[in-house]
Write a structure and sequence with these properties.
transmembrane helix, 2 domains, UgpAE/MalFG_permease, mainly alpha, membrane, two-stranded antiparallel sheet, single chain
């Protein structure tokens, strides 16, 4: 009898256990974690782990079959003329692209949101198409447009004004122009859509009240439209800055073998040059850590400007 009772109790405990597991999985508390788990796993595997691995590698000398801890020696090598050149190029690129990809999208979005433009749905679909194109493929087209020959489209246009053919990839100003115009072409439409969404969230009552007060179009733009576009503007500026510091393809597509005088060298390009081409993975990782710190600080500034650190009652 005792053995029978024990076996029965074991069977009951085994049948209760799956029920508890099923009840736990079906509970409302678990559902949010189930939906978040794919993102969390991808973040841990593809973002957090490589970041930690890169930080560890930045304190090492990594050679084929040989890994040696060398302390901060890689960081001592970073601040050299080539790094300053790459950082300077990247900073100029960021300033130009942020200016263009913020001011022009605001103006174009206001125009598209007005009653002057018909068929807005078609324009919205067309604006997103450049972002879907591969930067490498688009860069190849731009290389043909801005070729060094007299028959290149860009040189033909400047020739109409009596300007000699320009060696676009061999001058500092024109090389920067190539990278900026490629990035602007690719991301202009996306930023216009961001601002269009922001414009549609502005209550019409505010414009009606401004009309009653006798406000001009400029005054409505300055005192109604732009203040309500501030969150979108901060977001667009932040992602433009981050994408600018992460820029690599726009430079690589024009100077895959290296630019003359490093006129097209960026911070990420310098990481690729040192870590991949010269097989100095530790030094490349150290540069990547510096870049990660820069982007982290920019993200903190964005959170501060959007009020993420304010208390709920403030």
């Amino acid at each position: 009898m005792l053995s029978t009772d024990k076996s029965t109790s074991v069977q009951l405990s085994q049948t209760k256990q799956p029920n508890k597991v099923a009840k736990f999985l079906n509970s409302k508390k678990v559902v949010p974690y189930v939906f978040v788990s794919p993102f969390l796993l991808s973040f841990l595997i593809f973002t957090l782990y490589p970041a930690i691995k890169g930080i560890i590698m930045s304190f090492q000398s990594v050679l084929p079959g040989q890994v040696e801890f060398i302390g901060i020696r890689n960081y001592e090598r970073i601040f050299n003329p080539t790094f300053y050149k790459a950082l300077g190029n990247t900073t100029v690129y960021v300033v130009l692209t942020v200016t263009i990809l913020t001011i022009l999208p605001i103006l174009f979005s206001i125009l598209l949101d007005s009653k002057l433009v018909k068929g807005k749905t078609v324009y919205r679909a067309a604006l997103f198409m450049p972002a879907l194109a591969s930067t490498i493929v688009a860069g190849m087209v731009f290389r043909l447009l801005f070729g060094e020959t007299d028959t290149a489209a860009a040189n033909q246009i400047v020739g109409w004004f009596g300007v000699d053919p320009i060696q676009w990839k061999y001058n500092a100003w024109s090389g920067m122009f190539l990278m900026v115009i490629l990035a602007s072409w690719k991301w202009m439409g996306v930023n216009i859509l961001y601002f269009l969404a922001g414009l549609q969230n502005i209550p019409n009552e505010l414009y009606e009240a401004a009309d009653i007060d006798g406000a001009s179009r400029i005054q409505k733009l300055w005192y109604v439209t732009l203040p309500f576009l501030k969150p979108v503007t901060i977001f667009v500026v932040t992602i433009s800055i981050i994408n600018g510091f992460r820029m690599f393809e726009e430079s690589f597509v024009f100077w895959s073998a290296g630019s003359p005088g490093n006129i097209g060298l960026t911070v990420v390009g310098y990481i690729y040059q040192q870590g991949i081409q010269q097989n100095d993975m530790g030094f490349g990782a150290a540069i990547g850590v510096i870049l990660m710190i820069i982007i982290f600080v920019i993200s903190l500034i964005q959170l501060f400007l959007t009020g993420a650190f304010k208390r709920g009652d403030e």
